[in-house]
Amino acid sequence: MSSSILRPLANSAKMALGRRALATPTNVHPSMLQSVLPATIPAALHLKTGESYHGTSFGSTNSKYGETVFSTSITSYTDSMTDPSYRGQLLVFTSPMIGNYGVPSNAPLPETPGIPFLESEGIQCAGVVVSDVALKYSHYQAIESIHEWCARHDVPGISGVDTRAITTLLRDQGTTLGRLAVGDEAEYVPKAEEYWDPSQDNLIAEVSTKQPYELNPNGKGPKIAILDFGSKANILRSLVKRDARVTVLPWDFDFNAVRDQYDGLFLSNGPGDPTSIMETVHRVTKTINEWNKPIFGICMGHQILGLAAGMETYRMTFGNRGHNQPVLALASSGSIKAGRVYVTSQNHQYAIKLTEDFPEGWAPFFINCNDSSVEGIISTPESGKHIWGVQFHPESAGGPLDTHPMFTDYVQACADKSASGMATSELKVDTHAAAVGASA
């Protein structure tokens, strides 16, 4: 529906409400009762490499620095913008229109209390760059426009720029530091030393939980600990929906001090460089060497596993961000079948190096069909371990669900290990009782 049609509807509804001549209409979407457009304010995206793109502001009127990246996803912009892995980044959407279905309430669903509806409590990216922002929205779950949402979270946006040109530039030269400038600041081009590099900060510490907390404590499934490097909410949902009892721990928590209380360890996604938290890497190495229960890592968690196992990571040119990344399975495990290509959702700048000789006890699990980057690692049967790491997001909110059954595989492995441990414990008790009886 065009804005020329919406504007009379909005105006007539407001006039009726002002005169109190009519009752509040029940069949008009709330978006039609709101102002159509924000004030027109100039904005610009300045890149450290010298390029500038001028357009119109939406959202916050405060200027922000960040790392300019692009995403090829064509849906779920609300989930991408709330993904903690985008912390400190100026997010360029290649999809030409963003905002057409508005923004839903972020309140937890009744079946998953304590977990926000979107991927975190608020917007995580530093700014948003779009070709055409939809300031009028239409969706039965929407409660506000993307403009209102960004303004409320102090996140600036720019519309009316050529995102195809920006994406081509970033693809060729790689992710680039930038500034999204608004209003009078739009004309000022920052000096090279003024640009802020978010990778120099410990972004994981910013987005991780500050205190441990529990989800689904009365569940019947296995007890799983999550090291939170910036976990997406849908990871938590995916575990809780399988009735796992989940404890979320801060990124620098010493899991080895409490590991015997749990049936499995999960390493979440997160922003930044995995080598920025080497103390955690060393603790995970200790866990791998001394603990024989299942471990699953996603995205940042996958990279932490690789470093802990003795592999190397590197910074990719422009990373992989989007809901359409094909990966080839090199090994079979649970629901994953070797030789099959799976379409996955991804958001990462760093990756594990592919080498001819993996460390002993490890093997490549997935490889990217586009750039041959390592998309997964797995412990070998000879190692006696049950460890998986994937660079993509099996929980994919939004995106394809090809690999979502991996959560079922993992929770079942934890449950099996728990049952095996209980059986062993009972056997020891019975053996001890028999010995006592014999001596009597």
What does this structure look like?
With 440 residues, this protein is an alpha/beta fold. The chain has two domains: 163 residues, Glucose Oxidase, domain 1, CATH 3.50.30; 217 residues, Rossmann fold (3-Layer(aba) Sandwich). Strands 12-14-13-15-16-21-20-19-17-18 form a ten-stranded mixed β-sheet, with helices on both faces. A seven-stranded mixed β-barrel has the order 1-2-10-7-4-3-11. α7 packs across α8.
Task: Give a brief description.
With 440 residues, this protein is α/β, with parallel strands linked by helices. It has helices at residues 3-19, 77-81, 146-152, 163-173, 203-207, 233-240, 278-290, 300-308, 405-439, and strands at residues 42-47, 52-59, 64-71, 89-93, 97-98, 103-104, 127-129, 132-133, 142-144, 156-159, 176-182, 213-215, 223-227, 245-249, 264-267, 295-298, 313-329, 341-352, 362-368, 374-379, 387-390.
* Number of helical stretches of at least 4 residues: 9
CATH architecture of the largest domain: 3-Layer(aba) Sandwich
How far apart are the first and last residues' alpha carbons, in Å?
Answer: 88 Å
Helix content: 25-40%
Order of helices and strands: HEEEHEEEEEEHEHEHEEHEEHEHEEEEEH
Q: Give the C-alpha Rg.
A: 25 Å
**Number of domains in the coordinates?**
2
Largest sheet descriptor = 10 strands, mixed
Determine the mean pLDDT: 89
Uncertain spans, ≥5 residues at pLDDT below 50?
A: 1-26, 424-440
State the total count of DSSP E strands: 21
CATH class of the largest domain: Alpha Beta
> What is the structural class?
alpha/beta
